[in-house]
Input
Amino acid sequence: ASHASYIEEYQANVDTIIANADKLKKYSIFNRAGSFSYANILQTSSDFKRVDNVVVMEDEYKGVRNHTAYYYQYFFTMAVMIFVIYDLFNQRDNGMWELTYSSPNGRTMLALKQIAVIAVAGVVIHSVIYWSTFLVSMIQSGGVNDLGNPIQTIEEFARFTYPLSKIQYVAVLYLISLICIVSLSTIIWAVFVLFRSRNYALISILIF
Output
């Protein structure tokens, strides 16, 4: 019943936010050009005008909602990435790193190779976990036929001000999370580079 009310009231709520922002622009206390409050009002009005024509409807939304709210998938991905990075530094334990570091351009080539491995591993691991989680959410909670509907049909996205469909949002979330995972993995790799022992590096990562 609450979701039906949300769907029914969505357009009115968007119109109210836009109307209130337009009203505030008329008050002298808010309409000083260049002030933060004025810029914020203009931004709010502009943001919600982007979704003023979005039409929401009752549909099967729980699959996408459950998937976007399942943050554990990112922790699983990072746990696997830490294992991959840890394995990249196994030469620290067998003495091979001394030979590599002493050879011409050894450090540079090793670093480039390791970063490439991290990038590829990040893409593969995140893709498998992310899209398998999405598939399971669709199977368990449904909504495949409604993926073309606006993401705003999910109440948690009432304040999301970009006119994206559910599948577009899921795709954008995938790309953004992939960039974050590869970037964070690169930072973790840099921490491993700083330590002589990969075990000390791992302990440091786990502590922080």
Notes: The mean pLDDT is 88.
